[in-house]
């Protein structure tokens, strides 16, 4: 990645890490990870789709060097847009690569998308002009596939400039190979100076490639990543998700569930969070914690997406834990307000009454009391590192 870009990102990370205070219940380490995700996701752009103007034909110019998968992505995008209800046409303006038009037509036939092209014609801008006239107002979206290679780079960029004038696109999409890394910055910058890039598509993310070049391309053009290609099939294209992509980039998995949990901590009851982190947690607070874990979705999915936990927790143990959380919430609902506020009141007779009221055995009520005490002690000892404490007290750390 470009050294200046690395320094810029590092500077923003340092500024936020020093200047921001983590919300109660979130450790500084987790907060730093969240900041890192925020900054990288901001560079890559949010999760966005094309915003087509109604009542007119929207022209999309596909840019990129040879080998980036541009023609394949054009066909994939044509099928995706057709599936979304848009009448789509494609203009094949790659007059340089032998067989380019045949390849494009073969792929687009699978989704019944018409491709306009002229075999043997070398004037790409003229092909574009005639192709746009051919489709006229019959399409909602027209995709223009262009050449990716000439003998000289200058010739390629000059042709892109002339095609840009001929097409007058509403959107120029830059297709980049997710495997090429730091070379993306110079490529993206060169194309952007020729035809203003409005969005980025990253291809070849079905291999071990992490797609780090997308950050460089976004920085060079100021554009968001819109779609990614994830395989060889015509359907292997998906809308860009910043959390999944950044997780892959850093080798940390999809941490969407963890980020949502952090957001709930930030948006939650600050008085309750301060009370928990200071070791003064009530049974009501514990009930809310159990609800937050349940609200994060499948506990198996949550842990599988957490750095360091993927594949380390047995499915049977997770199922037991999910069942225990559900039982505990029922038991807490059978307590009086006084018992919730001060669980030390739970003597033998109270435990017997709560067991009868909740429908669960007395040993489950005692197990809840033990789990509550362990949780309270662990959070206090860890000085509010709620996420780590939660996992350890559940026997998963």
Structural overview:
Helix 4 links the parallel strand 2 and strand 3. The longest helix has 20 residues, at 362-381. Helix content is 54%, strand content 11%. It folds into three domains: 1-47 and 241-254, Four Helix Bundle (Hemerythrin (Met), subunit A) (Up-down Bundle), CATH 1.20.120; 58-239, P-loop containing nucleotide triphosphate hydrolases (Rossmann fold, 3-Layer(aba) Sandwich); 269-393, 434 Repressor (Amino-terminal Domain). The protein has 18 helices and eight strands. Helix 3 packs parallel to helix 4. The two termini are 35 Å apart. With 397 residues, the chain is α/β, with parallel strands linked by helices. Strands 3-2-4-1-5-6-7-8 form an eight-stranded mixed beta sheet, sandwiched between helices. It has helices at 3-19, 28-44, 70-83, 100-109, 124-135, 153-167, 184-194, 213-221, 242-249, 256-267, 270-277, 283-295, 299-304, 315-333, 337-341, 348-358, 362-381, 386-393; strands at 58-63, 88-93, 114-116, 141-146, 171-177, 199-203, 224-229, 237-239. Keywords: Cytoplasm, GTP-binding, Nucleotide-binding. It comes from Cenarchaeum symbiosum (strain A). Residues 57-251 form the SRP54-type proteins GTP-binding domain. Residues 56-232 form the AAA+ ATPase domain.
Give a nutshell description of this structure.
By secondary structure, this protein is α/β, with parallel strands linked by helices.
SSE map:
Blueprint: H1 3-19, H2 28-44, E1 58-63, H3 70-83, E2 88-93, H4 100-109, E3 114-116, H5 124-135, E4 141-146, H6 153-167, E5 171-177, H7 184-194, E6 199-203, H8 213-221, E7 224-229, E8 237-239, H9 242-249, H10 256-267, H11 270-277, H12 283-295, H13 299-304, H14 315-333, H15 337-341, H16 348-358, H17 362-381, H18 386-393
Parallel strand pairs: 1-4, 1-5, 2-3, 2-4, 5-6, 6-7
Antiparallel strand pairs: 7-8
């Amino acid at each position: 990645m470009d050294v200046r870009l690395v320094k810029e990102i590092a500077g923003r990370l340092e500024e936020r890490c020093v200047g921001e205070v983590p919300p109660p219940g979130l450790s500084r380490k987790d907060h730093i990870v969240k900041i890192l995700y925020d900054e990288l996701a901001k560079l890559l752009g949010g999760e966005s789709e094309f915003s087509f103007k109604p009542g007119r034909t929207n022209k999309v110019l596909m840019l990129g060097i040879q080998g980036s998968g541009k023609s394949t992505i054009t066909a994939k995008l044509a099928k995706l847009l057709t599936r979304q209800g848009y009448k789509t046409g494609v203009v094949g303006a790659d007059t340089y690569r032998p067989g380019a038009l045949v390849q494009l037509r073969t792929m687009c036939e699978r989704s019944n998308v018409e491709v306009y092209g002229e075999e043997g014609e070398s004037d790409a801008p003229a092909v574009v002009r005639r192709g746009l006239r051919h489709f006229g107002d019959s399409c909602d979206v027209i995709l223009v596939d262009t050449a990716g290679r000439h003998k000289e780079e200058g010739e390629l960029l000059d042709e892109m400039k002339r095609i840009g004038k001929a097409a007058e696109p509403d959107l120029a999409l830059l297709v980049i190979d997710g495997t090429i890394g730091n070379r993306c910055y110079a490529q993206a910058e060169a194309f952007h100076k020729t035809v203003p890039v409005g969005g980025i598509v990253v291809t070849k993310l079905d291999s071990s490639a992490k797609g780090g070049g997308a950050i460089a391309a976004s920085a060079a053009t100021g554009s968001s990543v819109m779609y990614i290609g994830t395989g060889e099939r015509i359907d292997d294209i998906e809308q860009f998700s910043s959390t999944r992509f950044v997780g892959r980039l850093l080798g940390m998995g999809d941490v969407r569930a963890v980020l949502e949990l952090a957001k709930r901590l930030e948006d939650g009851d600050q008085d309750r969070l301060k009370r928990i982190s200071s070791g003064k947690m009530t049974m009501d607070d514990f009930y809310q914690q159990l609800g937050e874990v349940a609200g994060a979705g499948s506990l198996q999915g949550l842990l599988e997406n957490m750095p360091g936990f993927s594949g380390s927790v047995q499915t049977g143990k997770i199922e037991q834990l999910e069942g225990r959380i559900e039982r505990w919430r029922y038991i807490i609902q059978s307590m009086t307000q006084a018992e919730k506020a001060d669980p030390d009141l739970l003597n033998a007779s109270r435990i017997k009454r709560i067991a009868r009221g909740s429908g669960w055995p007395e040993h489950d009520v005692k197990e809840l009391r033990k789990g509550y005490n362990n949780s309270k002690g662990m959070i206090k000892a860890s000085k509010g590192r709620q996420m780590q404490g939660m996992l350890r007290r559940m026997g998963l750390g």
